[in-house]
Request: fold
Amino acid sequence: MHDRHTETAPSSETVPSVEAQAEEQILLLRGRIDQMDAELAELLERRALIAAQVQRLKPVGYFAGRDLGRERELVERMAEHAPRLGADRLAEIMDSVISAGLAAAQEEAASAS
Reply:
């Protein structure tokens, strides 16, 4: 027969605390975010390179040649894939992405001439 009074509970050293488990989960999730951020940076670089090619081919390029209708359509399509962000937030994000790509392309064109 077991004496209930002599049984010992697991020590706090052997059972991770809720805080430690949460911290471990946070570290794992942040690692996933870091990986996605690296992938996103690579996609943004590729996008900027292709956008620069488009700008060189357009009769009026860079900031003067922005196609706001096309940008709206792009955001609407993206919102279908990212409903949590929604069209308004995606519009802000894509405006920054497009502006940064155009600025980089314009700087490259200026330094090449």
Remarks:
- The mean pLDDT is 89.
- Residues 18-112 form a domain with the Chorismate Mutase Domain, subunit A fold (CATH 1.20.59).
- DSSP finds three helices and no strands in the chain.
- Helices lie at 18-57, 68-81, 86-112.
